[in-house]
Amino acid sequence: MKVTRRSFLQGGVAGTLAWSSLGFDLRPARSLIKELKISRASEVRSVCPYCAVGCSMIAYVGGVGETQSFNTTPHLIHIEGDPDSPVNGGSLCPKGAATMQLALSQERIQYPRYRAPGASEWTRISWDEALNRLARLMKTARDERFVATDADGNTVNRNEGFAWGGGATITNEEGYLVTKMMRALGVVGLEQQARL
Amino acid sequence: MVSLAATFGRGAMTNHWVDFKNSDLFLVIGANPAENHPCGWKWAFHARDHRGARIIHVDPRFTRTSATADKWVAIRAGTDVAFFGGMIRHILENQLYHDEYVKLHTNASFVVSEGFSFQDGLFSGYDEAAREYDTSTWEYERMAAPAPGEGEDAAPSEGFAVRDLSLQHPRSVFQLLKQHYARYTPEVVEEVTGIPADEFVAIADEFGSTGVPEKVGNIVYAVGLTHHTQGSQMIRAAAIVQLLLGNMGRPGGGMNAERGHANIQGNTDNAQSWEILPGYLQIPRPGMETLDQYETPASLTQMDAGSINFFGSNYRKFMISLLKAWYGESAQAANEFHYSYIPKPDKNWSWMTFYAEALAGRLHGLFNSGMSSVNIGPDSNRVVQALSRLKWLVVMDPFPTASSEFWHGEGVDPASVDTEVFFLPTTHWIEKAGAFVNSGRWTQWKHAALPAEGDVKDDAYILSQLLLRLQALYQKEGGAFPDPILDLHWPYSNPNNPPLEEVSREINGRDLTTGAQLATFNDAKDDGTTAIGNWIYTGSWTEEGNMMDRRGTDDPTGLGFFHNWAWSWPANRRVLYNRASADADGRPWDATRPGIVWNGQTWKGDVPDFTPDSPPSEGKGAFIMTGEGVARIFAPGSLMMDGPIPEHYEPVESPVENVLSPTRRVPTTILYEGVAASFAEDDSEFPYVATTYRVTEHEHFVTQYVPYLVEAMPDFFIELPRELANEKGISDLDQVRVSSKRGHVQGVALVTKRMRPLRLGNKVVYQVGIPVHWHPTGGHGKGNTAQMVNLLTPYVGDGTTVTPEFKAFLVNVERA
Amino acid sequence: MTTTDLGLTIRRQSATPASGTNIRRDHSTPALEISKLVDIDLCIGCKACEVACKEWNDLQVEETHLFSGYQSHPDLTPHTWDLMRFNEVELAGGALAWLIRKDSCLHCEEPGCLLACPAPGAVIQYENGIVDFNQDACIGCQYCVSGCPFDIPRFDTVTKKVYKCTLCIDRVSTGLEPACVKACPTGAIRFGTKEDMLAYGNEKVEKLKARGFTEAMLYDPVGVGGLHMMYVVPRGEILEQYGLPVDPTVTAPTSFPSLIGALRKVGATASWAGLLAAAVYFLKTGKRYPPPEEEAVAAAYEKAPHG
What we know:
Chain A is α+β, with helices and mostly antiparallel strands and 196 residues long. Chain A is 21% helix and 21% strand.
């Protein structure tokens, strides 16, 4: 049936019982308001992964704590600022406000990949295969490019075979482990984002 | 950060975000805090609304910071030393400096040795062939031993620097400063920077007005000052302004470096940096054969009777405690705690050296862990060539990057690339615990919120697995000096994937005789009975537990210290160098904003950055991390490799000659093999000054994977002044091609009033703005190679730190 | 807190003769009246509000392209309820101003949308001032779009419903601030009682005047009965450059009898089924409320459940 603004349909009669003969709804107004989506979530305190303001954030996670059941796995419902933080007081910038999409991105790589010399494709590889191969390459590089003593006879014990370029979204502890291990391997080419 | 350490003793933002509320005046330069640090910048607005503060923004572009500032002036990218030099001159000429502060807390009164000189843009000791300075003349004049029979009761003074507290000695730092900057007149500043002389004088006057005890000015900067061949000198020049005005160490003051990544401060502290070890201990150089030869850099020898010289006098304790953390039981006094295990580089090994080594066929492998060489550049084409020469490349990241995919990128034939590439997918921040250190040194613990999807691993797992496999290989096969690998102390309950809580406790350090966590670095020992992973973090995880996870919101002083929220290095101090917030008698310069105050027995307020019970009458210097005991206006010795006083040079690519001297470029920049030909020598082919930056909707490259952010700022763009667009027949939203001598990009033109032509003498110079975020693997399939701004940037770095010159180079612009 | 404390009883609903459930409320305590306030002086145009709104309300991602400066979308959409609008303006004297304004529903005290809406209960005004759309009751006629003096509601051609900012009533009803307010990095978007927001706004205007913004003003126009999202505007002399109408008014009838009177001219009657057993309402036409998309309306009616 074609309708124009001047020809309106006669409404049906299958109404709901809530509509009283008085012509207004006596149900609590709240029933019109959708439920708070985080009302049953657990709160986990985190810190924003972007700039160095260090905004505290709360991740609202379902399927843990009180809502954990045999059939559920933890899932992220929402992230917002932690109001207790003296720095950000609960606020977040657009990047922080969208961190849930970063955490849950379907564009994340899900398994190790290997690209052989000259190959035009990635191939899936197991962690063991990747780590064994890499350890072998690291040893070869180090053994070939290790300088124990320089031309002046100084003990220098440096490995010029490979270098580490790190990011700045790993934690202090991970960063410390990188330094500890790379220096033990004699690495001199050790950098992170700071200069860039 | 090197420049801050050279000036004050530590390389970090001196104050912190909340402290901005205590400022009277902000000079924002080389930064865009409203866009790039929005949640921290609220405190500047708080200061404006609650204490009438003002905000001045000096920037090549009119940004969202300018839009909300009280004043904006356009500056030519790369000329900030001239700007600050002019300001130093103005402050000195008009006696705007805080005289008492300058005498008490800076080395203005120190006398420089006779051999020091400056002429034609070069300091004494320049070796043109080596492009290096012999810095031996950049020293203080030293006192001789007292004559026999004279002053035997006096404190030893031999070797201390000569001082003249009247500041009149012609070779005093103060007089040298006056002399050096006499050339930086407002007219010269205008001709170099493009800021009209009258506007410049107005800004210099206004910021100079904070040189009184009752006012505090704050200099806020970011990579807009670091990404230059003279970046560290720009920061030094700004720091000198702050010292002259007495704005250091005080609530509301400071040199506030806004860092751009969640834990860039923490990872610098933990020494993912070629030249340092954790806690800013220097990496030893060849020839430092023993611990005795290693300890105490020249700048950390006591140079004044008043110097506490805390760092210098504890250097050995911190180093030995670090070696104990790394090598455990096997590190013993008899073997010098395995000091010999620490590698000793003979040259600069920063980023660009990596690629140079790869291009030369010397470097086998490279890790890209949470960063991407190709995206970051500089000169991404050169980086791609370098990666193609590697035997292997490892990318540890949650997302693909232009580096992980370089071998099948645009214009690359995979068949011709022999590099083996590993993509090791890692967990992200939300999936693991650990500490992030913010720009203001607040070290905040985060908790793991949810498990990761897929077969991805923690960074700690990957590192451990590689270590364990290497140990097995070396044990079985032997090889080059396996000892440091086999002896590495890996004492974690799960050596396959160390719990980060245990690593954090190791960083804090413990007493090996009692097993107790240390509460303070004052308990560090040099006899091998303490093990400390990073001494500046001692106190972060004590016997009382994880101090970084504290959530106290009390602020009894009202000054925003929040000592019970998380933990701040060092020692939970919130404002660095806070002894300088008080005068010689320990009274605050401004009683409404005291940093620390001497109450007769002890220093109260913030956690003192000072000996807590040293009375003012002892006359100890406020800067405990320098050998002088004061802050350095003049940076002696080899602290800075390109000069003890900042001098203006043109960026490597510049449209003009250097007005200030015949030395056009920073004389000590490293010229990597084959790069000289990749620089534009003048503006004939590439006439416009380009600068690069972030926008608030994105963070570097990763947000190209966040749909709401791609929606909020969708397209790669190039900002052009209207006048330039008119000249070139470019309309708003046209596709434009921007080229430098190294490559080209293509994006949408945003023709805007917010970019203004600059008048330099008789010449008009246009500036072009290009954001960094877009790249081939981002944008949900819409990314492409020609969106990477670092295809354009020059392969050259700072004269001291070798930080690339991302912020000023020459380009041409055409309609695509 | 009880419901009443948060002002969540219904004050009035579209096309409904009596007002809502407030007749049952104990009137001895006044209802809480709430408001947002956007202090444009503090707004850095970062779009945190825009993104936080989308994230909290699970609004779908839209493909955008640059079309004018930094603004993300040319206009509000059914999936973008909060939009930062940017305008580069050269001021007298040559100085540059970048006017940036958060655009989203202003929650008028006299809501043009509600008064124009013919669908009973599709537009609801709560005692606290929130004006919310109930899409279950919406018939997709888009009269609200025409009725809004600020051009806020947006019709979704897929669902045939109209959408706009809810003032995060789900958050407000549990004592939380709206998502945009919570996120705002600089405190430019504030939330509280109308009284407190007026006090903040008036004080801020004085501060701005002292800083040289002589025409600074609090934007809370009487023509719409006042707003539940007010603005502090630093440059009141160029209000329109911010995209704010100088003197917005609701020309709709403001009482039920006058509505009847107005609609009688049209003479059309319609009853719509679904949730409602019997309700009579009228639509009026004409220049004041031109329905924007007749075809869409017709299609919506055809798809509406009717028995």
